TrEMBL record:
<dbReference type="InterPro" id="IPR007760">
    <property type="entry name" value="Mn_catalase"/>
</dbReference>
<comment type="similarity">
    <text>Belongs to the manganese catalase family.</text>
</comment>
<protein>
    <submittedName>
        <fullName>Manganese catalase</fullName>
    </submittedName>
</protein>
<dbReference type="Pfam" id="PF05067">
    <property type="entry name" value="Mn_catalase"/>
</dbReference>
<dbReference type="InterPro" id="IPR009078">
    <property type="entry name" value="Ferritin-like_SF"/>
</dbReference>
<dbReference type="InterPro" id="IPR012347">
    <property type="entry name" value="Ferritin-like"/>
</dbReference>
Length: 36
């Protein structure tokens, strides 16, 4: 067995969140039905 730790390689700091841009990025990754 193994233990999986979900971590990013680099720290991410979001100063100004942009919901419109996030929705566009999510539709590019997961299709139009992913980012609802």
């Amino acid at each position: 067995m193994f233990v999986y730790e979900k971590r990013l390689q680099h720290p991410v700091r979001i100063k100004n969140p942009n919901p419109k841009l996030a929705k566009i990025i999510m539709t590019q990754y997961g299709g139009p039905w992913c980012a609802r």
